[in-house]
Amino acid sequence: MTWKPLPAEIKEPEPLTLRDAVKEWAREFSAGDVDAFATILREWPTIVGADVAAHVFPHTLRDGELIVDVDDPAWVSHVGFLGEQLKTNLNGVLGEGAIGAIKARLDPTLRRGRA
After folding, report:
1. How many Cβ atoms sit within 10 Å of the Cβ of residue 45?
2. Domains of the chain: which residue ranges?
3. How far is it, in rounded angstroms, from Cα 72 to Cα 109?
4. From CA 86, how far away is CA 67, in angstroms rounded?
5. Rounded Cα–Cα distance for residues 55 and 83 (Å)
6. I need a surface site. Which of 1, 12, 41, 73 has the fewest CB within 10 A?
7. CB-hemisphere CA count at 13 Å for 74?
8. pLDDT surpassing 80 at residue 5
């Protein structure tokens, strides 16, 4: 078989920016809304307040559900009590309906660095 050049109509894809590459990866692997999650990470202490931000950490955003990690079992319940207010604050930043649910889970590794 001899070598032949590719047909002229086949073109190399244009390079992607890092942002576009991450968005494409996120879509392929169902990683959620990258821009919204980046906003949550960047604005977290402002959105939830310093006291909550010291114990509650965004983990994943997928299909309108925000999963947060907490450093103490009491914060799992506290997030439940604060849920509606947190959703209101988050939707105020991200747009109405962006966050439909917030679920908290205990991550004991978060306590390791604390006294």
Report:
1. 12
2. 49-107
3. 10
4. 12
5. 15
6. 1
7. 3
8. no
Element (H, E) at 95: none
Confidence of residue 30 (pLDDT cuts 50, 70, 90): low
Where does the pLDDT of residue 51 fall: very low under 50, low under 70, confident under 90, or very high at 90 and above?
A: very high
What is the C-alpha separation between 47 and 82, in angstroms, rounded? 12
Helix (H) or strand (E) holding 96: none
**Can you read off the two tokens belonging to residue 111?**
């306590």
Contacts of 24 (CB under 8 A, 6+ apart): 16
The string of DSSP codes covering 26-76 is HHHTT---HHHHHHHHHHHHHHH-HHHHTTEEEEEEETTEEEEEESSHHHH
- Give the Cα separation of 106 and 113 in Å (integer): 15
| Rounded-to-integer distance, Cα 16 and Cα 4, Å | 28
> Token pair for residue 38?
């980046």
Q: For residue 106, give the H/E element and its range.
A: strand 101-106
